[in-house]
Structure formats: C-alpha cells, structure tokens
Amino acid sequence: MHPHTESHKAHHHKGKSSESLLDRALILQELDILPGWTILDAGCGNGYMAKEFSQLVKSDGRVYALDPDADAIKALKAETEDSNIIPLVGDITQKTAIPELSLDLIYVSTVLHGFSRIQMGAFCAEARRLLKPNGKLAIVEIKKEPTPFGPPLDIRFSPQELRELINIPPKKTLEVGQFFYMQTFEKKE
C-alpha cells in the first residue's frame, strides 16, 4: 500500500524538533518578512520560528502558532503572553479559526510528510482559504535521500512532488540545512 493513502497512520514527532539543524537566518532572509504581516506557523511545535517571526512583524503584525499538541501550545501561551503571538490548538488539515484571506505567509516545517493524500488536499484548501492574494506558502521538508534521522524515504516529498501536490504556483527551492530544503509558493489571485 502506498504510504500517502487514506489509511496512512497518524504522524507524531513526539517532541522532536529540527530546530538546531535548520539555517534559520537563511530561511528568514528568503522569506523577506515585513513589519505588519500576519503569519501562520502551522505545526509550530515549541514555537521557535513563531518567536522569530514575531520579532520581524513587530507590534503591528501578528503570528498564529498552530499545533495539535495541546501541551506545547499551553507552554507557548504561557511563554508568549502579552506578545503578538496567538497560540492555537489545531490542525492545518482542517478548517481553522483564522479569518479567510488574512495571511501574508504560512510556514510549515517538517510536517507534510506525515499527511495522507486526503489531508494534503485539505491542507491545500485551507492554505488557499487563508492566504491573501500574493500571500506566500513556505514548506520546509527533509530531503528525499538517506539521512541519519527522519521518516522513511517513501513518505518524504521531493521538491518536484511538492510542486505537483500543492495547488499554489511554486516560486523557489532552496537548501536550508544539510538535510533540508524549503519550497516557496505564491498565491496569485
């Protein structure tokens, strides 16, 4: 059975993070985030990127930090009280409480490889619902090659496979760590 079928098992990182292995400075430079933006860090985990985004959007902007792990969101909420970060328990493969056409950027790091085909379709629909015209989607994934960690190769996506699955026009692919790449997409309408 192909791993991205409907029966694909739920995928959990069990608190593991790729935080120390990513070139955060390069990611942030490439995303070119401006003050006042509204950003969604989907599958935010401990919120390390949401905190980076928060600094860049300044007090006029906001950052939604979404994760299905209620404990991680509770900890992030306590840590970021009185900030422009809005921690939410939720799943980007379902309709979120975030307003339609409100986001300048959706950032998703090392999450998609755990999605079934149905979840991938639902993710694309929610991303399109949330992004403003010219809004960006940035997906960081583990390269589809042998690495010392990570999910099985057969559930990883190559940049080409992502471009075929995501129904938003692709912009650029960039290496963002020894084992990672970032693919960006930009909504046109």
Structure description:
The chain has 189 residues and is α/β, with parallel strands linked by helices. It has a single domain (19-186), classed as Vaccinia Virus protein VP39 (Rossmann fold), CATH 3.40.50.150. It contains five helices and seven strands; from the N terminus they run H-E-H-E-H-E-E-H-E-H-E-E. The chain has helices spanning 24-31, 48-57, 70-79, 117-130, 159-165; strands spanning 38-42, 62-67, 85-89, 103-109, 131-142, 170-177, 180-186. Strands 3-2-1-4-5-7-6 form a seven-stranded mixed sheet, sandwiched between helices. It is globular. The termini are far apart. Mean pLDDT is 91; it is low at 1-15.
**SSE pattern, N- to C-terminal:** HEHEHEEHEHEE
Tally of domains: 1
The coarse silhouette is globular
State the helical fraction: 25-40%
CATH topology: Rossmann fold
Strand content: 25-35%
Radius of gyration: 15 Å
* Low-confidence residue ranges: 1-15
Per CATH, the superfamily is: Vaccinia Virus protein VP39
Task: Count the beta strands.
Answer: 7
The overall pLDDT average reads 91
Structural class: alpha/beta
Q: Which architecture would the CATH scheme give at its second level?
A: 3-Layer(aba) Sandwich
Q: What is the name of the CATH class?
A: Alpha Beta
Distance, first to last CA:
37 Å
Main sheet: strand order? 3-2-1-4-5-7-6
Largest sheet: 7 strands, mixed
Number of helices: 5
